[in-house]
UniProtKB/TrEMBL annotation:
This is PepSY domain-containing protein. It comes from Vagococcus proximus.
């Protein structure tokens, strides 16, 4: 009888450990598939730009767009930043990955 309880306890322990590992893996996969909010992405980009000068304005498209470059396909946000550089207003537009918030491309407009 004691051996049966030991087997049952061992089986329950192994099952619990497997469930925890599988659940943790599933949670990581789900989190990785989530996109960041447009507001959070814009705030991070504004913070980076503000290290070099004051920002006069900023905007971001709230709707994600699909971007495909070569073999890479992802969802992105597009937006813009205006700041003063040597007393002149300079505008930039950017493309940021919606999953990581990483700036994929940025270019000066004027």
């Amino acid at each position: 009888m004691k051996k049966e309880w030991e087997k049952l306890g061992l089986t329950a322990g192994v099952s619990l450990a497997c469930g925890m590992v599988l659940g943790g893996g599933l949670a990581l996969m789900i989190n990785k598939a989530k996109t960041k909010s447009a507001s959070d992405v814009l705030e991070a980009i504004k913070l980076s730009f503000s290290e070099e000068g004051s920002i006069e304005g900023a905007w971001i498209q709230m709707k994600k767009e699909e971007l495909r470059r070569y073999a890479i396909k992802t969802k992105v946000y597009t937006g813009g930043i205006t700041r003063r550089e040597d007393e002149v207003l300079v505008q930039y537009e950017f493309i940021a990955d919606a999953y990581t918030g990483t700036v994929i491309d940025i270019y000066r407009l004027n």
